[in-house]
Amino acid sequence: MTEPKDKLPASDAAPDVKLDAMLARALGKEVPNEEVVAVSSVEPVPPEQQRCGFVAIVGKPNVGKSTLLNALVGQKISITSRKAQTTRHRITGYRTVGPSQYVFVDTPGFQTRHSNALNRSLNKTVLGAVADVDLILFVVEAGHFNLADAKVLDLLPATIPVVLLANKFDLVHRRGELAPWLRSMQERHAFAEFVPMSAKNGRDVERLFGICEQYLPKQPWMHDPEELTDRSERFMASEMVREKLFRLTGDELPYTSTVIIDKFEQEGNLKRIAATIVVERDGHKGMVIGDKGEKLKRIGTEARQELEKIWDCKVFLELWVKVRSGWADNDARVRSFGYE
Ligand SMILES: Nc1nc2c(ncn2[C@@H]2O[C@H](COP(=O)(O)OP(=O)(O)OP(=O)(O)O)[C@@H](O)[C@H]2O)c(=O)[nH]1
């Protein structure tokens, strides 16, 4: 991050011409001189040709930020689920494509509805994450924009270029109607680019690298190009259990449930992990355990199988469930569970 933040790499063209060009590119019409960057394996690049920068992924809950981060990094490093507010930590993933190294920062969906200690901590994480980056990917659902999106947009510093990433484009049936929506979005903020796409579509994700590249400062890479994340295996284990917990309990379980790793030991090619799922009420405990322990067993099995695949080793995973009422309202307890 050596370049000054007040310099947006925008073209010199008049705003309307630039907007039309962005719309044309966004909606898939031909735009001359556009380079498509192939995502391939890492080749050696001399330091003077390298680019490296921070890219924050922001947006309200459930718009697809974690799905996008995993697709960009090429491996699952952030958990996803249909339940809003699954992501609770700032997660950094890296990806080196050609001469450019992208350091991605995922953020929890900005919470505007409830004000408890957990949400205050989440919002602080979001603000910290966008303060010092080279580019912001502002994720919304294509064709939609509501108050929750507006509150996130309001937080973004005017000095950092913002890409409007209209995700879940696959769910838009009348694509022609997106042009007026994109125009109205440009009135809300001077976006550097519009990118309608689907985080679940590999080609779209590949194209996004090409669009982001020009915003990365020319400077040597900060990480080994083979590295994908700074998160520990312990953290991955707790996130994996949390993902399965939310996926398998559906909407009944409040998002305040959390997972703590009590033990993480390596024995040769085996990892022994013991974890506790912390819920707020006795009723929630029953939901997690399920009939004859069926649900808890499935959460454990699915988490174990996926961890074994990612780490390529055997995993022994033991799960417990505990009730700690009111933990999300208590600042000290929120900190003791690992939220800053
Ligand atoms: N159809 C469609 N669904 C998507 C797309 N991207 C994400 N989703 C789904 O949207 C839901 C939410 O995705 P997440 O990646 O967990 O969203 P998030 O923004 O990280 O959510 P929080 O952690 O709550 O902030 C999941 O069910 C995803 O499978 C997309 O491009 N198309």
Q: Tell me the strand percentage band.
A: 15-25%
Structural category: alpha/beta
Mean pLDDT: 77
Q: Judging by the overall fold, what is the CATH architecture of the largest domain?
A: 3-Layer(aba) Sandwich
Membrane topology: Peripheral membrane protein
Family: Belongs to the TRAFAC class TrmE-Era-EngA-EngB-Septin-like GTPase superfamily. Era GTPase family.
Function: An essential GTPase that binds both GDP and GTP, with rapid nucleotide exchange. Plays a role in 16S rRNA processing and 30S ribosomal subunit biogenesis and possibly also in cell cycle regulation and energy metabolism.
GO cellular component, one term: cytosol
Summarize it.
This protein is an alpha/beta fold and 340 residues long.
Structure description:
With 340 residues, the protein is α/β, with parallel strands linked by helices. It folds into two domains: 15-213, 3-Layer(aba) Sandwich (Rossmann fold), CATH 3.40.50.300; 233-336, GMP Synthetase, Chain A, domain 3. Helices cover 34% and strands 20% of the residues. It has a six-stranded mixed beta sheet, sandwiched between helices. The chain has a three-stranded mixed beta sheet with strand order 7-8-9. Helix 7 (233-249) runs antiparallel to helix 9. Guanosine-5'-triphosphate binds at residues 59, 61-67, 80-82, 84-87, 108-109, 167-168, 170-171, 198-200. Residues 51-218 form the Era-type G domain.
